Structures are given as structure tokens and as C-alpha cells.
Amino acid sequence: MNEVLSLLPDLPRQGKALVYVTSPTCAPCRAATPIVERFAAENEGRVKVVKIDAHAQPEVVAKLNVRATPTYIGFDAGSEFGRVLGGRITREKLAEVVGL
């Protein structure tokens, strides 16, 4: 996992984070983005949200073992905590993925 952390300089080594893997050509991603943005705003200071463009950062996507977009990966203290796939996402599910 240290390889992944080196590829994600915005990912905090302490505390909770959500990595949101998206794609500009993904319709479910476009629908999910406002939900992720609202989650980020509501949890500012508690959860760092890092958005990854799968097309622009394929090496990060490969290291994270992401096979489809959107993918949401929760991290706690730099270690993966939870993961969920798909466009039908809620703020409550995102909170669960990061362990809130």
C-alpha cells in the first residue's frame, strides 16, 4: 500500500480519507459527483476527499485495483478501510465506507 500512498500525495497519512475514482465519460460518475461534493463539504475537517480521474491517472487506478468507475475507497490512517462500486451512492454509504 505504500506504493499507492506515494502516488497519492493528497491522501493523509493520519485520519480518514475518501478516494473517489471517476471518469469524464462515465454517466453514473457525473450523477454521483454532486453527492460526493456535498459529502466532502459536510465532513470538511473530518474526511479528506481525493478525486482521481481514471483516464488521467491510470497508474494510480491500477495500483488501487480499480476495475470500474465510479469507485469509492475509504482510508483510515493511510490504510484501506472500505470500498464500494457504482453510481447509486448516498452520503450515508460514503460515511460507512470511511468509517464515520
Description of the molecule:
The structure is a single chain. The chain has 100 residues and is α+β, with helices and mostly antiparallel strands. The protein has one domain: Glutaredoxin (3-Layer(aba) Sandwich). 36% of the residues lie in helices and 27% in strands. The chain has four helices and four strands. The protein has helices at residues 2-7, 27-42, 58-63, 91-98, and strands spanning 16-22, 47-53, 71-76, 79-85. It has a four-stranded mixed sheet with strand order 2-1-3-4. It starts with a helix and ends with a helix.
In short:
The chain has 100 residues and is of the alpha+beta class. It contains four helices and four strands. The relative contact order is 0.26.
Defining traits:
100 residues, alpha+beta, Glutaredoxin
Number of strands: 4
**Helical percentage:** 25-40%
Q: Order of SSEs, N→C?
A: HEHEHEEH
Low-confidence stretches: none
Q: What shape does the CA trace take?
A: globular
Amino-to-carboxy terminus distance? 22 Å
Task: Give, in spatial order, the strands making up the sheet with the most strands.
Answer: 2-1-3-4
Our Rg estimate from Cα atoms comes to: 12 Å
Structural class: alpha+beta
> What is the number of helical segments per DSSP (H or I, 4+ residues)?
4
Any idea how many domains? 1
Under the CATH scheme, which architecture would be assigned? 3-Layer(aba) Sandwich
Oligomeric form: single chain
CATH fold title: Glutaredoxin
The top-level CATH class is: Alpha Beta
What is the average per-residue confidence, as pLDDT, rounded to a whole number? 90
Largest sheet: 4 strands, mixed
